[in-house]
C-alpha cells in the first residue's frame, strides 16, 4: 500500500494537477447549479469551501486580537507602501531591488528551495517551516504586513513588544520576541526565562506596594531573574566583555556618558541574504545576520565628536554580543529560522507583485495553534543584583530598567547570482525527486503533535542543503477563497468605530503615564509622539483632522517635521500615512530657522532606520545634500549602518564614490574611517570602494583613522595589506609630521595597537619606526614623551627592538637619565622599565651605570605614590634578572634596604611587586641574600604568604626561592618553627584549578619548597617529607615538566642510602608513575630524564653500596632494564648515556639474576669503548664511576674490561692530581675498585691500591664537610671489597681520623667548608663500623671503646648498630655488662673532664701499634718503582709520626 501511495503522490508532484476532491466537487454542484450563482454570493462560496484547510485556519483569525490591535491592523493594512494594492496606496512606488524585482517567471506549479544545513542546530521541522510560510502568506497577501519588532519603553519601565498585529500570536512573532529577549539578556547580563516572564508579567507592578513584605529585589529574584552566568550556555559570556583598559576616572566618565544616553540606545538584530540565485523554479539562498547599535539622539543634541565617543563605547558591546550571543543552541535556531523568514518574505512579495502567484495553503502541514504560538505583548523590566560580578551596562544596582532593541529584515538584496546554475550543471534532473516525495508524503500522514517531520536534506558536491517544496496557485482578486474570509472579517471590523478621544487618552496613559498623556492631548504634541512611537491608528485619526500645512510644519525646538520623526524612529507606516496625505517626502529640516537641513532620508540613514529608508526610497525620495554637504550614504557610513549602505548601493551604485559638498570632498569610506565605523569600512571595501582616495587635504583613510585614534580601522587595513594603502609607511611618516597634534595621535595609535597585540613590533621596526620614536624623546612635550615611552615599553621585550633602541642615539644613556629627572612620575616609571629592558643586552649595562640612571631608580623608591613604586620595582625586577653584575650595583645604592622597607607597607599590589623585585636582586647572590635577611626580609616574606590572593603569594614564593637558593643559613631560618614557611607553600601547591595560572602557581610553590632543601642531604630529606609521598606521586603523574622535575628530586632525597625509605616508597607504589614516565621518555625534557634515571639508581642501593634486592628485582620486573637501554641508545646526550649506564650498574650490583638478564641485551665492553672517547672532565669521571660499579665485586666484568685494554692509570692520574679534592677522592675510589683492570701485575695492582688508599687518608685531614662525607662513603664501600684494603686503611690511620671527625663540629654556614654535619658524622660512624670487620681494626677499636664507652655510644648514635661487625658488638656489649675499666669513678670523671686527652691517648695507642700486612711490602715497592711515590710516602709518614709523637707526649 505504501509503494502505491508513494507513486500516486509522486505523480501529483510532477503533474501538479489542482482540483477539488470529489466530495467537495459534488457538494459544490449540489449547492450551486451554476458557477455564476456562486460567484454572486460570496457567503455561499465561503460556506461551500469550509472543508478546505486554508479556509478553516483563517475563519476565526480576528478573534485573537483586541479592538486596539484590530484598529492598528486596519490602519497598517491600508498604508503599507510595499504590500498595499495600488488602488488603495495611490502614489507611485518603485519595486525593491534584488529578488523582489528580478524574480524570473516560471510555469511550474511548485518551487524548490535549497539552503545550507547548519550542523550546530537540531534538524529543522517541516511543520515549523510550513507554519512560518503560512503566517507570512496571510500577512503579505491579505493583511499587508511585514515582519518587524521593536521594544518600546513605557513610563513604568516595562517594554512593549511592538510588532505588526498580523504577527501577534504567531510562531514568527514568538520567535522574534524570544530571540530579541535573549539578545537583551546577554547585553545587560541578566535573564528571565519565557515561562517565568509570562507569570511575572502582571505581578511585577505590585512589587512596591505596602502589602508586599519582601523587597523589590527579592521579588524579582523569586520570580526567576538571574545573572546570565547562571545559564549553562552563557556561563562564560561575561568573560568575553573586554572594554579598553582605562584609568578609573576615565572609566567612570565613560560610564556616566553612556548612561546619559541610555534611553536613546538600542541593539538591533538585522537579518539579510548574502546570496540568492535562481534556476527556473529552483531557488537557493544563504542567510546571515548582523548585530548593530542604533542611536536615536538627533545631531543637534549629539554632535559628531560626541557621536564618535558614544559609538566607540557601543562597539565594545557589539563585539561582545557577536562573540557570545550564538553560544546558545536555542538562539542559533531562532536566527536560522529568521534567515529563512527573510528569504520567504522577499520570495512571497516577488510572487505577489511579479508573478501573481500564491502558496497553496492547503498543501501545508497542520497549523500550530494555542499556547504554542502565544506571543508576549510586554516584557517586565530587568534589574541588576548586588551579587553580580560584572555589570555590562552602567546602571546602578537594584534599579529597574527597560529594554531597547528590535529585529529588522533586509529584504532588498543584491542582484541574483548564477551559483545555482553552476552547482546543478550536469546534475541529474531527478536529484531532488526523493526529497520532494518525502515532503509530499508528510501530507498524507496522520496529524500527530509529537511526530517529527524533518526537512529533507540533499547533498550536492559534498555540501548539505535543506530542500523545501512550496506548491503555488494563481492569485487574483480574492482568490483563493481564504482571502475572502479575511476580507469579510476586515470589512466587518472596519464598520465598527472604536477610536475616540477617550481611547486615545487611555492608550497614551498606558504608554507614557497620566501626566504626559494629558500633555499629548494637544493634537500637535499627540501627532509628534504618535509618529515617534508608531501609533499608526492614532496618528491617522489626528492627521485627518489636521490641515496639510500642519503636517509639514517643523517643530520649533529641533526643526524636524513629522516625517523626520517617523524616519528617525523607523515608522514606515507613519511615513505611508503622511505620503497619502500629500506630505512632501523630500521636506528638509530647519537649521537656524532655515529649511536647508536634512531630508527624512538623511535622518533614516543616520539613525539606522532600515524600513523607513526603504520606504522613502521606494516612494522615490531624492538623493540630496544637507546643510553640511552630506548625502544619505555619508551619514550611513559615518554612523556605521551597514544595512543602509547596502540598501543605497543596491539602489544607486554611483553613490559609492560620492563626495561631500564641503572643503574636504570626502567619500563615504573616508567618513567611515573618520568615525571608526569598522563594519562600514569593511562593507565599503567589499563593495570595491576606492581605498586609495585622498581628500582635498591629502588625507587617506589611515590619516583620518589615526587622527581620531581609531586603531580598529588601522589594524583592518594592516590585515588587508593593500599596496594602495601602505599603512605602516603612512603611520611611521606621521611620527615626524610637522603638526604636533598629528604626531601625538600617531604615537597614541601605536600605543593602543602595541597594547592590544604583540604582532606589531616587527613591521614597526622594519619601517624604521623605532629610531623615529626614540628621537621624539628629545621633544619637551610631556604628553608626547609619555605616549612614546608607552609604545617603546610595550615592544621592548623583543631583543631586536632592544638593539634598535640601543643604536638609535649615541647619547641614549644621558637621554634616559634626563627623563628620570622629570617631575612626572609616570615618565620616570616608564623610563625605568625601558632601561631595564635595554640592559638585557650586556653591553648596555655599563653604559647606563656610567650615567645617573641607577641613582634615579633609587630615588624613585622614595616616592609616596604607589604606582611609581610599583613601576620602579618592576624596572628593578627586569634589570636584575639573571644579571649578578646589576644585582651588585643596585645593592651598592641601598636598593635592597629600601625594598625591605617597602615590604612592610600595607599595600598588597606593592608588596607583591616588591617581593618579585627582591627575588630578582637576591637570586643566587649570597651577599645580597645576607643583606636582605639582616634587614628582616625573611619574616616579611613569610607574612606575605598569608595573603588570600594567589598572585601575591606567587610573588612571595619567588622571593623565598631567591633568598634560599645556595644559602644554608636562610634555608634553616625559613624551615625553623619560628617562620615555618613550608606550611603556606604546601597550601599553595594544593590549588585545585585547571587554569594555566593555577599550574604556574603550583610549579613555583614546588620549586620554592625544594630550594629550601639546599645541598644538605638531611635537609633535602626533610623537605621531601614535607611534600609527602602521595603528593609526590600526584606531581609525577602531572603533565608539568617542573612538577615532574621537583618530585623526582624529592624521590631521590628520600631514597638516597635509606633502605627504610626505599621500602616505604615501594609500598606507596612509587614505581608505577616512574615506569610510566620512562615509557614515555620521548615526551620528557632532558633534565627530567636525568633525574628520572638517577631515581632508579638511588632506589636500589643503600648504605655502603649495599643493594636493596627487593627494589632491584621489582624495577627489573617492570622491564626497566630494556627501557633504559633503549633510552641510552636513542639519546644524543652523553650525560644521559652515562646516567643510564650508572643506573644499569646499580640495578645489577651484587645481583646475579639481574646481571644475567642484563648480559642478554647489553655488552659492557661496548660501554668501555664509548666512554673512552669522552673528554669533558665531569662526564669522564661519571663514566669511570659507572665502569667501577660494573666491576664492583664482579670478576667477570673486570676481566672483560681488562681485555678491552682501554682503561689505564692515565685515565685517573689527572683527577687524582687535581686541585679539586672531590675529583681526587672519587678517582681514588675508582682506582681501588679497578686496580685489577689497570695493573698488569699483582705488585702493580697493590702499588696502585696503596697509592689510592694513602691519598684518601690524606684527604681525610681536610675540613670540608662534604668531602669528608664522600670519603667516608668510599671507605665504607671499599672496606670489604678485597683482602688487604681494610688493612691498608688501618695502616694509614684512617680509623683514627674517622674517629676524630665524629667529634668535629661543622664550620659556619658562610664558610666554603660548611655542609651537613649530621650526615658527616653518620657516614664516618658507618665507615668505622665497616672497618670493624678487620681483625686489627677490631682490636684497636675495642681497646678505645673499652677505655671510653661513650665512643661506642657515639658510633651507634651517629651510625647504626647493624653497620658494625656483629662479633664486635656482641663481644663489647657482653664485656660492658661484666664491667669495664672506665667504670671506675676516677677514670670516668677524667674522661668527662678531658675529652681531648682521651682522644690523644687513643691516637697514641693506635699509632704505636705496628700491623704487618701486604701494604707494608707495597710501600717498599713504591719507593723503588716510582720516584713521586717515594717522595710522597716518607713525607706522609714523617708528618704522621710528628703528629703522633706530639700527641703521645701530651698524653
From TrEMBL:
Keywords: ANK repeat, Membrane, Transmembrane, Transmembrane helix. Residues 1-43 are annotated as: Disordered. The keyword Protein biosynthesis does not apply. It comes from the Eukaryota. InterPro entries: ANKAR, Ankyrin_rpt, Ankyrin_rpt-contain_sf, ARM-like, ARM-type_fold, Armadillo. SUPFAM superfamilies: Ankyrin repeat, ARM repeat. ARM repeats lie at residues 768-800. Pfam families: Ank_2 (PF12796). The chain crosses the membrane at residues 334-351. ANK repeats lie at residues 558-590, 596-628, 628-660, 664-696. This is Ankyrin and armadillo repeat-containing protein.
Amino acid at each position: 500500500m505504501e509503494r502505491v501511495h508513494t507513486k500516486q503522490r509522486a505523480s501529483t508532484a510532477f503533474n501538479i494537477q489542482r482540483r477539488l476532491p470529489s466530495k467537495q466537487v459534488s457538494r459544490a454542484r449540489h449547492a450551486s447549479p451554476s458557477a455564476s450563482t456562486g460567484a454572486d454570493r460570496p457567503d455561499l462560496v465561503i460556506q461551500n469551501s469550509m472543508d478546505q484547510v486554508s479556509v478553516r485556519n483563517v475563519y476565526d483569525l480576528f478573534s485573537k486580537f483586541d479592538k486596539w490591535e484590530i484598529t492598528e491592523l486596519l490602519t497598517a493594512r491600508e498604508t503599507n507602501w510595499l504590500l498595499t494594492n495600488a488602488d488603495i496606496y495611490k502614489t507611485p512606488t518603485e519595486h525593491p531591488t534584488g529578488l523582489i524585482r528580478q524574480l524570473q517567471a516560471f510555469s511550474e506549479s511548485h518551487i524548490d528551495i535549497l539552503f545550507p544545513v547548519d550542523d550546530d542546530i537540531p534538524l529543522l521541522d517541516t511543520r515549523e517551516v510550513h507554519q512560518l510560510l503560512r503566517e507570512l502568506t496571510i500577512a503579505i497577501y491579505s493583511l499587508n504586513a511585514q515582519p518587524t519588532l521593536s521594544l518600546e519603553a513605557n513610563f513604568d519601565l516595562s517594554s512593549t513588544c511592538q510588532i505588526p498585529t498580523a504577527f501577534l500570536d504567531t510562531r514568527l512573532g514568538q520567535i522574534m520576541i524570544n530571540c530579541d529577549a535573549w539578545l537583551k539578556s546577554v547585553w545587560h547580563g541578566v535573564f528571565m526565562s519565557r515561562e517565568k516572564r509570562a507569570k511575572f508579567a502582571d505581578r511585577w507592578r505590585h512589587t512596591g506596594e505596602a502589602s508586599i513584605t519582601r523587597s523589590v529585589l527579592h521579588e524579582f529574584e523569586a520570580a526567576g531573574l538571574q545573572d546570565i552566568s547562571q545559564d549553562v550556555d552563557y556561563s562564560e559570556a561575561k568573560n568575553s566583555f573586554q572594554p579598553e583598559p582605562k584609568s578609573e576616572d576615565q572609566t567612570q566618565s565613560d560610564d556616566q556618558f553612556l548612561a546619559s544616553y541610555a534611553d536613546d540606545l538600542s541593539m538591533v538584530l538585522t537579518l539579510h541574504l548574502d546570496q540568492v540565485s535562481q534556476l527556473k523554479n529552483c531557488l537557493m539562498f544563504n542567510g546571515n545576520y548582523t548585530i548593530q547599535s542604533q542611536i536615536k539622539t538627533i545631531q543637534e543634541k549629539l554632535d559628531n565628536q560626541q557621536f564618535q565617543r558614544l559609538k566607540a563605547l557601543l562597539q565594545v558591546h557589539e563585539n561582545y554580543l557577536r562573540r557570545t550571543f550564538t553560544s546558545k543552541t536555542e538562539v542559533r535556531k531562532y536566527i536560522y529560522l529568521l534567515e529563512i523568514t527573510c528569504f520567504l518574505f522577499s520570495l512571497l512579495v516577488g510572487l505577489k507583485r511579479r508573478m501573481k502567484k500564491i502558496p497553496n495553503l492547503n498543501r501545508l502541514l497542520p497549523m500550530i495553534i494555542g499556547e504554542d504560538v502565544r506571543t508576549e505583548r510586554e516584557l517586565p523590566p530587568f534589574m541588576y543584583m548586588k551579587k553580580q560580578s560584572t555589570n555590562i551596562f552602567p546602571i546602578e544596582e537594584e534599579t529597574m530598567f527597560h529594554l531597547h532593541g528590535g529585529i529588522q529584515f533586509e529584504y532588498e538584496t543584491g542582484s541574483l547570482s548564477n551559483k545555482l546554475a553552476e552547482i546543478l550543471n550536469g546534475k541529474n534532473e531527478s536529484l531532488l525527486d526523493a526529497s520532494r516525495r518525502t515532503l509530499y508524503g508528510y501530507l498524507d500522514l496522520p496529524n500527530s503533535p509529537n511526530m517529527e517531520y524533518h526537512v529533507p536534506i540533499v547533498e550536492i558536491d559534498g555540501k548539505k542543503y535543506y530542500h523545501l517544496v512550496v506548491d503555488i496557485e494563481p492569485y487574483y482578486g480574492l482568490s483563493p477563497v481564504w482571502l475572502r474570509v479575511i476580507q469579510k472579517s476586515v470589512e466587518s471590523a472596519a464598520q465598527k468605530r472604536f477610536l475616540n478621544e477617550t481611547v486615545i487618552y487611555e492608550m497614551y496613559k498606558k504608554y507614557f503615564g497620566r501626566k504626559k498623556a494629558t500633555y499629548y492631548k494637544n493634537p500637535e504634541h499627540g501627532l509628534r509622539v504618535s509618529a515617534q512611537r508608531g501609533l499608526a491608528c492614532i496618528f491617522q485619526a489626528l492627521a485627518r483632522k489636521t490641515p496639510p500645512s500642519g503636517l509639514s510644519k517643523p517643530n520649533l525646538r529641533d526643526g524636524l517635521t513629522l516625517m523626520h520623526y517617523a524616519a528617525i524612529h523607523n515608522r514606515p507606516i507613519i511615513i505611508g500615512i503622511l505620503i497619502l496625505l500629500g506630505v512632501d517626502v523630500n521636506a528638509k529640516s530647519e537649521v537656524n530657522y532655515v529649511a536647508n537641513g536634512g531630508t527624512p532620508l538623511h535622518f533614516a540613514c543616520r539613525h539606522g532606520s532600515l524600513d523607513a529608508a526603504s520606504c522613502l526610497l521606494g516612494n522615490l525620495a531624492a538623493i540630496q545634500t544637507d546643510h553640511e554637504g552630506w548625502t544619505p550614504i555619508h551619514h550611513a557610513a559615518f554612523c556605521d549602518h551597514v544595512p543602509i549602505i547596502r540598501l543605497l548601493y543596491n539602489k544607486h551604485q554611483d553613490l559609492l564614490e560620492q563626495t561631500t559638498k564641503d572643503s574636504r570632498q570626502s567619500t563615504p569610506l573616508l567618513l567611515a574611517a573618520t568615525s571608526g565605523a569598522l563594519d562600514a569600512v569593511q562593507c565599503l571595501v567589499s563593495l570595491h570602494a576606492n581605498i586609495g582616495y585622498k581628500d582635498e587635504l591629502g588625507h587617506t583613510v589611515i590619516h583620518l583613522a589615526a587622527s581620531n585614534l581609531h586603531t580598529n580601522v588601522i589594524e583592518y587595513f594592516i590585515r588587508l595589506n593593500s599596496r594602495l594603502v601602505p599603512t605602516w609607511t603612512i603611520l611611521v611618516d606621521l611620527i615626524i609630521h610637522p603638526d604636533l597634534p598629528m604626531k601625538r595621535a600617531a604615537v597614541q595609535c601605536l600605543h593602543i595597537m602595541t597594547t592590544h597585540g604583540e604582532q606589531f613590533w616587527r613591521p614597526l621596526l622594519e619601517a624604521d619606526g623605532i629610531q623615529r620614536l626614540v628621537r621624539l624623546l628629545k621633544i619637551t612635550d610631556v604628553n608626547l614623551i609619555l605616549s612614546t615611552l608607552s609604545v617603546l615599553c610595550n615592544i621592548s621585550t623583543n631583543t631586536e627592538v632592544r638593539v634598535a633602541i640601543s643604536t638609535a642615539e649615541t647619547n641614549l644613556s644621558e637621554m634616559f637619565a634626563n627623563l628620570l629627572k622629570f617631575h612626572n612620575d609616570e615618565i620616570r616609571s616608564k623610563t625605568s622599565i625601558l632601561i631595564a629592558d635595554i640592559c638585557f643586552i650586556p653591553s648596555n649595562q655599563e653604559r647606563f651605570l656610567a650615567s645617573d640612571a641607577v641613582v634615579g631608580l633609587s630615588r624613585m623608591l622614595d616616592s609616596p605614590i604607589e604606582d611609581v613604586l610599583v613601576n620602579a620595582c618592576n624596572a628593578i625586577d627586569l634589570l636584575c634578572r639573571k644579571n649578578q653584575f646589576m644585582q651588585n650595583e643596585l645593592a651598592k645604592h641601598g636598593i635592597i634596604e629600601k625594598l625591605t622597607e617597602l615590604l612592610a607597607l600595607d599595600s598588597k599590589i606593592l608588596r607583591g611587586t616588591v617581593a618579585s623585585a627582591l627575588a630578582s636582586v637576591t637570586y643566587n647572590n649570597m651577599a645580597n641574600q645576607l643583606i636582605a635577611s639582616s634587614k628582616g626580609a625573611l619574616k616579611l616574606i613569610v607574612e606575605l604568604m598569608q595573603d588570600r590572593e594567589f598572585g601575591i603569594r606567587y610573588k612571595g614564593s619567588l622571593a623565598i626561592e631567591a633568598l634560599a637558593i645556595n644559602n644554608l643559613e636562610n634555608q634553616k631560618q625559613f624551615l625553623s618553627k619560628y617562620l615555618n614557611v613550608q606550611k603556606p607553600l604546601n597550601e599553595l601547591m594544593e590549588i585545585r584549578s585547571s587554569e594555566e595560572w593555577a599550574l604556574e602557581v603550583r610549579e613555583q610553590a614546588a620549586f620554592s619548597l625544594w630550594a629550601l632543601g639546599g645541598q644538605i642531604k638531611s635537609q633535602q630529606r626533610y623537605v621531601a617529607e614535607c611534600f609527602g609521598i602521595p603528593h609526590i606521586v600526584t606531581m609525577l603523574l602531572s603533565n608539568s615538566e617542573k612538577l615532574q622535575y621537583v618530585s623526582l628530586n624529592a624521590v631521590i632525597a628520600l631514597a638516597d642510602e635509606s633502605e627504610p625509605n626505599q621500602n616505604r616508597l615501594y609500598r606507596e607504589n612509587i614505581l608505577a608513575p616512574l615506569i610510566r614516565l620512562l615509557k614515555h621518555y620521548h615526551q620528557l625534557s632532558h633534565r627530567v630524564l636525568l633525574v628520572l634515571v638517577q631515581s632508579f639508581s638511588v632506589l636500589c642501593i643503600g648504605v655502603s653500596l649495599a643493594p636493596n634486592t627487593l627494589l632491584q628485582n621489582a624495577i627489573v620486573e617492570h622491564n626497566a632494564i630494556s627501557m633504559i637501554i633503549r633510552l641510552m641508545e636513542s639519546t644524543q646526550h652523553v650525560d644521559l648515556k652515562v646516567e643510564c649506564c650508572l643506573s644499569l650498574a646499580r640495578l645489577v650490583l651484587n645481583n646475579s639474576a639481574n646481571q644475567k638478564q642484563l648480559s642478554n641485551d647489553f655488552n659492557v665492553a661496548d660501554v668501555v669503548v664509548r666512554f673512552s672517547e669522552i673528554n669533558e672532565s665531569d662526564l669522564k669521571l661519571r663514566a669511570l664511576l659507572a665502569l667501577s660499579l660494573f666491576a664492583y665485586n664482579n670478576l667477570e666484568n673486570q676481566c672483560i674490561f681488562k681485555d678491552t685494554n682501554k682503561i689505564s692509570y692515565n685515565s685517573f692520574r689527572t683527577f687524582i692530581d687535581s686541585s679539586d679534592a672531590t675529583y681526587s677522592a672519587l678517582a681514588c675510589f675508582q682506582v681501588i675498585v679497578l686496580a685489577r683492570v689497570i695493573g698488569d701485575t699483582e705488585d702493580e695492582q697493590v702499588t696502585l691500591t696503596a697509592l689510592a688508599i694513602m691519598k684518601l687518608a690524606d684527604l681525610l685531614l681536610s675540613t670540608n664537610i662534604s668531602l669528608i662525607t664522600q670519603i667516608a662513603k668510599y671507605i665504607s664501600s671499599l672496606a670489604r671489597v678485597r683482602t688487604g684494603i681494610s688493612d691498608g686503611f688501618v695502616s694509614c690511620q684512617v680509623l683514627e681520623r674517622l674517629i676524630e671527625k665524629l667529634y668535629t663540629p661543622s664550620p659556619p654556614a658562610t664558610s666554603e667548608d660548611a655542609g651537613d654535619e649530621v650526615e658527616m658524622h653518620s657516614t664516618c660512624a658507618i665507615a668505622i663500623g665497616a672497618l670493624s670487620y678487620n681483625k686489627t681494626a677490631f682490636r684497636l677499636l675495642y681497646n678505645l671503646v673499652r677505655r671510653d664507652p661513650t665512643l661506642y655510644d657515639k658510633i651507634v648514635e651517629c651510625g647504626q648498630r647493624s653497620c658494625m661487625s656483629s662479633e664486635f658488638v656482641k663481644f663489647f656489649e657482653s664485656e660492658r655488662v661484666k664491667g669495664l675499666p672506665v667504670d671506675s669513678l676516677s677514670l670516668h670523671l677524667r674522661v668527662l673532664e678531658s675529652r681531648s686527652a682521651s682522644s690523644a691517648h687513643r691516637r697514641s695507642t693506635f699509632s704505636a701499634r705496628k700491623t704487618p700486612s701486604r701494604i707494608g711490602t707495597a710501600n717498599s715497592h713504591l719507593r723503588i718503582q716510582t720516584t713521586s711515590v717515594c717522595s710522597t710516602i716518607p713525607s706522609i709518614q714523617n708528618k704522621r709520626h710528628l703528629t703522633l709523637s706530639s700527641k703521645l707526649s701530651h698524653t
